[in-house]
Amino acid sequence: WELRAIVHSPHPVTRAGEALAVAIPAVVIVFALTYLGLSRANAASFNEPLNHVGAFYYTVSVLSTVGFGDITARTESARLLVSAQMLFDLGLLVLIARTVVGAARLGVKRRDADPAPPPPG
Predict the structure, then answer these.
(1) What is the pLDDT of residues 6-59, one digit of tens each?
(2) Exposed, middle or buried, 44 (CB in 10 Å: 0-12/13-18/19+)?
(3) Would the pTM count as exceeding 0.70?
(4) Which of 55, 78, 85, 109 would disulfide-bridge 35, Cβ 3.0–4.6 Å?
(5) For residues 76 and 53, what is the distance between their CA atoms, to the nearest angstrom?
């Protein structure tokens, strides 16, 4: 639905930016809540128990691929989940960027191809 809205928007580039501004924080929130739940379900999953801020910090560290050292995944399930997030994030970022930019380009092309509306009056 969002891609269709971007393509048919009178301002596709702006609409594409709005889509990215919603999609990326949504991914961060989903993974942070997942890590928080994993930490609460099994305290040994990470080298320290995670609270909301710690789960958010850990997710952003993984997403940005800057690495981390103060919070690490210790159990196999936590390491598998973190590995899956890293792969998912890389693919998602490329897919979102490519799709949104493509939709914005198509919207600009469509807008420029439409004849100008008749003057009011």
Answers:
(1) 888 888 878 888 888 888 889 889 989 999 999 999 988 888 888 898 888 888
(2) exposed
(3) no
(4) 55
(5) 23
Q: What is the pLDDT of residues 48-88, one digit of tens each?
A: 888 898 888 888 877 776 666 667 777 778 777 877 887 78
Q: 64-69 long-range contacts, Cβ below 8 Å, gap at least 24?
A: 65/89
Token reading at 17: 């930016």
Q: What CA dihedral angle connects 23, 27, 32 and 35, to 10 degrees? A: 170
Q: Which two tokens stand for residue 103?
A: 């939709």
Q: How far is CA 29 from CA 23, 35, 66, in A?
A: 10, 10, 18
